[in-house]
Amino acid sequence: MNWGAIDRYAKSLIKEAGQKIKNSFFTEIEISSKSSVNDLVTNIDKEIEQFFITRIRRDFPQHRIMGEEGFGDTIDSLEGIIWFLDPIDGTMNFVHQKRNFAISLGIYKDGVGMLGYVYDVMADDLYVALKDEGAHLNDVRLSDLNDTNIEQAIIGVNATWVAPNRHVEHEPMIELVKTCRGTRSYGSAALELMHVATGRVDAYVSMRLSPWDVAGGIIIAKEVGAVSSTLRGESLGLLRQETFIVANSSIHPILLEKYIHLKK
Ligand code: 2AM
Ligand code: CA
Predict the structure, then answer these.
(1) For residue 168, which of 199, 206, 130, 203 has the smallest C-alpha distance?
(2) Per-residue DSSP letters for 41-53?
(3) Among 93, 119, 188, 194, which is best to mutate for testing ligand 1, by the most ligand atoms less than 8 A from CB?
(4) What CATH number belongs to 150-259?
(5) pTM above 0.85, yes or no
(6) Which CATH class is domain 3-141?
(7) Which atom of ligand 1 is nearest to the CA of 90?
(8) How far is the CA of 211 from the centre of ligand 1 (A)?
């Protein structure tokens, strides 16, 4: 497999899709909701996914595609080459802010992440990683992360999990928020992963993410030494929704042992 050629192909597809998303701001966007009133989707999410899928099927007919909007293949095993695509990660930000959303793409071979992309469309920041060859932001190599500790860490966490809720014990979360240096919540899992990969944030936690939200970003995060897992510390399966944490490797175990306790 010529991964260098696939990398060039994927980058140009992503840039073309990014331009289409930018152009969509000059048209009327149709907004609807999916699993809940706050789980938004637009015609642009669907059109961008279809744009990718048409091209990938034409040029790589053997590859399979798992996309958020459901135009791809039904994937129940990780065999072969699979493209995991979120055409717009952070749709609520896309709708409300017209920024802080990303195209997220991960290309896997037999379950191993080979190429990862997160494209912050409005900032024109393209994060890329090739397995074992390091990660880059717009052609500038990302440095390996330095060790840190909870007291000096910025934690990416939604305020929901610090209030009583049905997923996670909130008392240890309160302790975490009081102990760490600060918290942030950006509303796009793919971009939160890039904040961890660049060391702007030291961990990001979510109670429910889908394979396409994280598949690209975890390849990039891994190249700089960040650790991703479920909130029970298991490796990610990429076949269904799961809890999620990505963190600087020096604080990943402490976060799970001391502060983030899932309810039974
Ligand atoms: P999305 O914008 O592609 O739906 C928001 O905190 C983050 O969680 C986004 O990356 C969002 O991705 C993701 N997410 C995953 N499942 C979600 C759901 N059911 N409702 C809202 N956000 C979801
Ligand atoms: Ca999406």
Answers:
(1) 206
(2) EEHHHHHHHHHHH
(3) 188
(4) 3.40.190.80
(5) yes
(6) alpha beta
(7) 2
(8) 11
